[in-house]
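Suppose you are handed a protein chain with no further information: no name, no annotation, nothing but its sequence. What can you learn? This example shows the usual starting point.
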Amino acid sequence: MQNKPDEIVEAIKIAFESAAYPGDNAITYDDVNNHLEASEIAQFFRGVTWQSVSFELILAHSDALFFMTPEAHQYYLPAFLTTCIMHQDEETNILSSIIIDLTPLRQITRVDKSFFLKKFGVFTAAQVRAIILFLEFALSEINNSTPFNRNIKASLSFWRAHSSINTTIK
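A reasonable first move is to predict its three-dimensional structure. Written in structure tokens, the prediction is:
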């Protein structure tokens, strides 16, 4: 039986409730103006709890996850996941940004693999299960585009295969 959106949102909230705020200077990999977009994202998210991130902030910065440190990524991902579910009927780039973020590259270099492992190695088993719940919901409820569904399926396949990612992917 398919989980209802509010059940998935609650599961995500519970799984990430103990995620620690990364600190004001550890939101993006570059917050000292060497990379303008990363600096802006750090500025907008600085001091904001993931529970209070607004739909408008996520909508304006749907690609923010790409610039975040592993700790900030872990901390803010639930805001993106829950916002995507709660606003699933609205046309946004949020879902595509999440799927791209959660899907490893087919041709992964040693540098990419190291970054990917660092980025996703911080998740707990409960958080990985919440990500899988989100992806299952996205596949069945949010998007009916066949090409995009392939991306969701690829991401879901990866996360299911590494359901204890913090110990098996390393």
